[in-house]
Design goal:
- The protein is an all-beta fold and 124 residues long.
- The protein has no helices and 11 strands.
- Strands 2, 4, 5, 6, 9, 10 and 11 form a 7-stranded mixed beta sheet that branches. A 4-stranded antiparallel beta sheet has the order 1-3-8-7, with no helix packed on it.
- It has strands spanning 2-6, 9-12, 17-24, 32-38, 45-50, 57-59, 67-72, 77-82, 91-98, 113-114, 118-123.
- The N and C termini lie far apart (37 Å).
- Strand 5 and strand 6 form a beta hairpin.
């Protein structure tokens, strides 16, 4: 089972990037799919998550209104559209998949599968 994240890069403040995560080895249609990020010297933090049917979408307050998560269960992928990027968005971004009950989406310990991370750097 693998999650492969891509789409990171260097962008100026105010710019946009789209991250993608492709899952192989099993079908994740029944899983919560999420994005986390980790900046140097900081703990990994929740960014966004989407339930298996897209019925519930969650965002960290710091990205609400700027980021948008989406998933394609047929293609086993999850994406994160990031707009109006800020220098404080600089981090390694990880995609993750897990199965758990309501209200647990922001806890990284609930996710069983993780991608390798993709670097996002936002210059001022």
């Amino acid at each position: 089972v693998q999650l492969q994240a891509s789409g990171g890069g260097l962008v100026r403040a105010g710019g946009s990037l789209t991250l993608s995560c492709a899952a192989t080895g099993r079908t994740f249609s029944a899983y919560v799919l999420a994005w986390f990020r980790q900046a140097p010297g900081k703990e990994r933090e929740f960014v966004s998550a989407m339930t298996f049917n897209g019925g519930h979408i969650y965002y960290a307050e710091s990205v609400k209104g700027r980021f948008a998560i989406s998933r394609d269960n047929a293609k086993n992928t999850v994406s994160l559209q990031m707009n109006s990027l800020k220098p404080e968005d600089t981090a390694v971004y990880f995609c993750a998949a897990g199965q758990f009950g309501p209200g647990r989406h922001s806890n990284s310990g609930n996710y069983h599968y993780w991608g390798q991370g993709t670097q996002v750097t936002v210059s001022s």
